[in-house]
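Q: For a teaching session next week I want to show students how multiple molecules come together into a single three-dimensional assembly. I've collected the sequence lines for a complex. Could you give me the predicted structure tokens for the whole thing so I can convert them for display?
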Amino acid sequence: MKSHPILGIALGLLALAGPARAAEAEDAGRAERWTELQHAVFGERALADGAGVIALEAPSRAMDAAIVPVAVTLTGAEHVKAVYLLIDGNPSPLAATVHFGPAADPRALRTRVRVEQYTLMHAVAETEDGRLFATERFVKAAGGCSAPASKDQQAAAARIGQIKLKRDPASPAAEGQPATAQLLISHPNNNGMQMDQVTRNYIPARYIQNVTVDFGGERVFAMDADISLSEDPAITFGFVPHNAGPMTVAVRDSKGSLFQQSFDFAAGRS
Amino acid sequence: MKRREALLTGLAALAARAARAESLPFRLTEVAPGIHVRQGAMAEATPENADAIANTGCIIGDSAIAVVDPGGSLTDGERLLAAIRALSDRPIRYVVQTHFHPDHCFGAAAFLPDGPVFVGHARMPGAIAARGEYYRQRLADSLGEAQAGRPVVPTFLVAVESSFDLGNRVLDLRAHPTAHTDNDLTLFDRRTATLWAGDLLFVDRVPSIDGSLLGWLRVLGDLEAVPAARAVPGHGPPSVPWPAGAAAEERYLRVLEREIRDLQARGGTIEEAAATVGVEERDNWLLFDDYNGRNVTAAFAELEWD
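A: Of course. Below is the structure for the complete assembly, covering every listed component.
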């Protein structure tokens, strides 16, 4: 989204024009908003029904609106090069775009997002030949974007930029065998809508814009993110190791900070 | 005949409901000499209960009164004031707010005409600034603007410890690190060895974590060392023996910690945690389904970085 300033403005205007209070919004309003959003993000391109290609899981009623787990599953029926996650009712609806690389196992992707109001959520798969497949979910959650930031701000500030990588214990990373890993990034992902409880000013936005993961020099995925990712973003992804590691992770935030870390998978669980 | 019966039954139900809304049984129980507690309803806020869902009350000294948690709405606060006035005409010198959640402090404005000092944790003003308006709007949507009330920003701020005297009755205040919330304050009455624990202690009603699971367990350890004979929980009976009264809460919090850590070690997901962690505690708590999943979700994220 950062590479599309005009799109950013268009989405901002949509947010203003969109339903102010989700509880009152009608289905028709939501459908209209999705039509506008589709146009803003995908232009005139057609979106086909994603059934059989892409599935989106999210709780119908979120436990915690600031930590709403979402899972995107690809069936493998189409060769997908990118996935878009949109939270229609959020202030900046395009939550994440994931571009898969040659070392990706793009079947499963999980992350956690903030949800500001009752909303439709969309996952869109883009195939190698440029076709788009969409699926949707309705999620009841409210206040996730403006919820107070970290429950312990000092602890959060002290560990900003720390990165952990967890391998699924049930999924060994043998050469050529798909494996699953989870990336945990310590970052407040402040979206500019949260208040500092001490100064009582709004905390300036500072959020993760880009995450890349490579394995043995091959790209697993690159994610363009935005303010909808939860604090301390967590991303679970699949990969296929074609050679020896390490796995390298690079995270860039909106203040220009770059956090990098390398994980040696041969040494066992990290 | 049938229709008439149905009509009468309907009218009776309506009348009963109106009576409940107008005059909630407001009863103060004296749990120790001079310490009076109103037990809150084990429910969520509704127009019928006027958000009188938390324990509130007062401590009466030889020369003055301290109100502890001024009620869940302006209506609740006004009823508390009337009940206190039926007990004593000593001046209300302090209104202590154990934390910033609406069910504990939205009745504060009922006490403004008495001109008391409002006491709170040093982090409470910031917490009110961040979420007070959101809480007020939500409560007003349910109870109506006139009834909802609002918190009063405390001016007597406690960063670590402090004390005040009500006349031969010294109360020790203690501000805690992040636990139930980031602004939990407890009181200890030296005269009767009574700990007013606020929402650091839930009894019967499932605890809600709006701070830190691990922080709460640490603070609970500190509090269990307080030489109190009894404690007043934020939700539950007016008084429980101390520290025995904290056993169930501590067990619940430890179950969450242990099961989440086990699940994380096995590579389990946050969705799996929300659906499975703590379920064996389900029959031990009221409102379990309303809070357990959220507790687990927040604690899962917390423990990933422990």
